[in-house]
Amino acid sequence: MRSPFSAARIRRALPTRRRAVAAAAVVVLLAAGVAWAVRPQGPDLRTESALLTVRSGPSGDEPVDLDTTLYLPDGAAADAKVPAVLLAHGFGGTKESVRADAEEIAGRGYAVLAWTARGFGRSGGQIHLDHPDYEVRDAQRLLDWLAARPEIRTDNAGDPRVGVVGGSYGGGLALLLAAQDPRVDAIVPMITWNDLSRAFLPESTGKEPVNGVFKKSWAGLFFGGGGNVGSGPAGISGATGAQPEGAPASAGPPSPGPTAGPGTGPGRAPAGAADPSCGRFAAEVCAAYLRIATSGRADQAGVDLLRRSSPAGVLDRIDAPTLLVQGAADSLFPLAEADANARGIAANGTPVRVAWYTGGHDGGEGPTTDSDRVKFLTVQWLDHYVKGAGAAPGDDFTFSRIAGFDALDRGLVASGYRTADYPGITGTGRREVVVAGPPQRIANPPAGNPAAISSVPFAGELSSLLGGVAGDIPGQHARFESAPLPEAVDVVGAPTVSIRAASPTGEAVLFVKLYDVDPSGTATLPNGLVAPVRLTGLPRAVEDAAPVTVTLPAIVRRIEAGHRLRLVVATSDQAYATPVEPTVHTVALGAGAVTLPTVTGEPIPTTATVWRWVLAGLLAAIAVGLVALVAVLRRRHRRQESSVHPAYADTPLVVRELRKEYADGFVAVSNVDFEVHPGQVVGLLGPNGAGKTTTLRVLMGLTQPTAGEIYVFGHRLVPGSPVLSRIGALVEGPGFLPHLSGLDNLKAYWRATGRPWDDAHFDEALEIAGLGASVHRKIKTYSHGMKQRLAIAQAMLGLPELLVLDEPTDGLDPPQIAEMRRVLQRYATGGRAVLVSSHLLAEVEQTCTHAVVVNKGRIVASGPVEEIVGESPSVLVEVTDPEAARNVLDRLAGVRVLPEGDGQLVVDTNGTARSEVVAELVRAGIGVDRVVPRRRLEDAFLALVGENSRGSGDR
């Protein structure tokens, strides 16, 4: 697990703030850009990598190779000594896991020694889980090595000025090393444990770990992360082992301190690890894990082994000032572990400070605002207690919670708070919330399968992502709920609740969870945390059961007003080992209330807050300017719209000499002139790229024309003109909110217009849409054709006097197209008019009264459809035998039977007299019923624009 003190995250924070200010002013953008361009690319450092042989073990004389890298700041020398920091990695990682942190700390003037712990990567030896005689003594030998370096500041001979920083596995080492070696001057343990046996065998009613519930998922990852030889796989540190740079130093004489030499050899399995299931674990560690994992229960020997590697028993020996950083999103080492460490160290009179943040083993580094805060606290602690610079940091308590999303980069934002005194996990205040529900029977599944999912290592609250489907298995959990909270509650600490349980077996393993349920019913389990309990001596009847108090994991969460609490008691959880035998338990509430600890904290100002105030000021100034500009433009528009062109007052649409030219010189529309009168359905026709869409975009105020005028009922049209409310439009396809139903989309659209509800004419619009019951379905389930029909209905809401439709039949099937034809014809009555753009010339011919044909940005024809079609060179011939007639006419010179007859016989006579055509058919014995002229709009269209016309490339 990477610590939240990350150089990469810290560096990313600065340009993010610069971009925020840059969005408000070009001047700031330029300044930020210049500053970013000339910034140092990183601290000037030099590194030394080597395999150091240290001697440790119970006798203090067992050699092991440790893969190390020393980071020295520029200028560090014998006459310019610097303080040091030992930087330890997380379980499964290597020295490369902490490279970025090492470079950042070294850049602040410290010599940083990072190393790969024994049993991982290229280091030799076995994994003993931070055993005082092995991993801790290894670190002591590294202190010896630092004290002998000429660049390192010392307090006395052999005593380097040194701090120890580490996360998780490395954090446990920092605590144990400080307890074992008084030379350590300050420590910063992060996201680590107090009692390793309690962490892996928790029991939330206060029982000893030997009666705890085995945390099998995390234990399996621990064991698997250290079970391979060589560069260990990604483990709790979240980083893979990597080969260090540089060659090993030459061998030296044996000594109690570290030397360069072969030792057990990099990456080789140690002697005695014959069992392949043990990998690089020490045999006793391997055996303890296998015993517990097989039975699902701990024995005292296993508990003693884990406690041997726990700070809990040695906290009274820690004199080094301690900054404890713990994550709230951590199902491995929850906040209670840091609380126990803090209380134990403070009891010795040692300066202690506690900081909670929103990340952890399940939540990573947390938001940038949180990692920046932790970085600041860490540097402040080291600078004062190790470097001897700056005022004492104090012992105030800081914590944070997720506040939402940053409006600038959509990243999570955490708000930080501080209090003068550390309240622990019990808080400084209490809030009792009554939960209710009857006694309930719940089944323990055989072999723990299927199991509820509350959290998965590294994945946090997975159950909330699954919407509760896999979170709690039906029949395997009981629910007790509260009424909606009348006011928000800021929970900071560990809630408690009393329950009762009964079982025919006399024993039950249960998992207690506290959900935050919003008014919509969505339940969230904060950070996926659960409280496992093992209850024994249970009666058969729940009425005879004594209440037991369960302490839930500590959380930091605001439960908003109107939300409810849901207490869940489950029989299984994927992360824990449960009894194999199936049985049925009964659970009930004890006292009937959940106790919520609260803390009132003072908000912590951050540089981000300062930048936001600066940004707010800039945005306010810009907003004032924009308001003034809009006011000026509106006054100008009102003056332009105050007069009505008398010649066009009763005409829905008049377009005069319209021209649209783009900045690159491209002319999309060069000279368009037409009118749409009441009762007309006007088709706007043209090949692709002819300028149709540009004309419609200008008409709807979506783009400004270069020249020309558009009048709607005599009002000159400009963007934002009130007369636009008299136009209904479908241009550039439908756009709807996918999570709303069709009907809700129509209602939302109409509300946005601000017009009276009764003016919407919803019934007519829904009849036009023809969606039936589908109008109540969510838009994301609609086909393209259904969206198109709904968009047309939306355009017709309010029965606007002018309807503008771009390809309205796109996506409709033939019956729907025919119905659309009738709808448009009916619509153009009572003074209303329709302008429709379409590629379906046959539909335009049957639907429209008038047509405007555009080609290469110019009108090439306009007027009634029958006038544009004109005199026909072809005839429609109705005969008794079409196939025989086709054969006869094919033999006539100059006569051509057209292929697009839609099942009828359409003949192009090409000057041959119609009487001659009829006579030829009669002579062949074919009856002729009717001969009528036939010319389609398509024929006229092709004659006007040319069969190969491709328009002008309309945009």
UniProtKB/TrEMBL annotation:
> Locations of Low complexity compositional bias?
236-250
Please give the Gene Ontology molecular function terms for this protein.
hydrolase activity
Please give the Pfam families that the UniProt record associates with this protein: ABC_tran, Peptidase_S15, PepX_C
Which InterPro entries does the entry mention? AAA+_ATPase, AB_hydrolase_fold, ABC_transporter-like_ATP-bd, ABC_transporter-like_CS, Galactose-bd-like_sf, P-loop_NTPase, Xaa-Pro-like_dom, Xaa-Pro_dipept_C
Q: Where are the transmembrane segments?
A: 610-633
State the UniProt keywords alphabetically: ATP-binding, Hydrolase, Membrane, Nucleotide-binding, Transmembrane, Transmembrane helix, Transport
| UniProt xrefs under SMART domains | AAA, PepX_C
Give every ABC transporter domain span: 653-881
Task: Return the annotated region ranges for Disordered.
Answer: 234-274
Q: Which domain of life is it from?
A: Bacteria
Family classification:
Belongs to the ABC transporter superfamily.
Protein name, entry field: Alpha/beta fold hydrolase
Q: Organism, per UniProt?
A: Micromonospora thermarum
